[in-house]
Amino acid sequence: MDAQKVDMFMMTNSKFFESHHMAQIRENLLKMDDSKWAMVQTLQFKDPTTMLIVSILAGGLGIDRFMIGDTGLGIGKLLTCGGLGIWSIIDLFLIMGATREKNMEKLVQAFY
């Protein structure tokens, strides 16, 4: 893969991933063949900041977890009203990291 394309991808999508994953992502993108590049370019990543806002506004209903794909946790939060509010408060600190991890999982699936 062309290093210039990889660097452009890294610059435009760095906010969607944890900083300690960036070196691994760059290495995997450089090894990847050109046939998978189009698929990687079309991936839609969830914005961690947007998920934080959703968590602040409707976290007690589990909407934030539904949006990132954690259906089971979303149902749990919905049925318990956000764990009586405690789970909702904890998720305010965890949702951005969980969103970045889900984005990483989506990108890894595209590699293989």
From TrEMBL:
Note whether Membrane occurs among the keywords: yes
Q: What is its main location?
A: membrane
Q: Name one GO cellular component term.
A: membrane
One Pfam family recorded for the sequence: TM2
Return the InterPro entries for the record: TM2, TM2D1-3-like
Q: List, for all copies, the residue spans of the domain called TM2.
A: 45-93
Compartmental location: Membrane
- Name the UniProt key words of this record, in alphabetical order: Membrane, Transmembrane, Transmembrane helix
**Which residue ranges does UniProt annotate as crossing the membrane?**
49-68, 74-96
Membrane topology, as annotated, equals: Multi-pass membrane protein
The protein in question is named TM2 domain-containing protein
Q: Which organism is it from?
A: Paenimyroides marinum
Q: What is the lineage of its organism?
A: Bacteria, Pseudomonadati, Bacteroidota, Flavobacteriia, Flavobacteriales
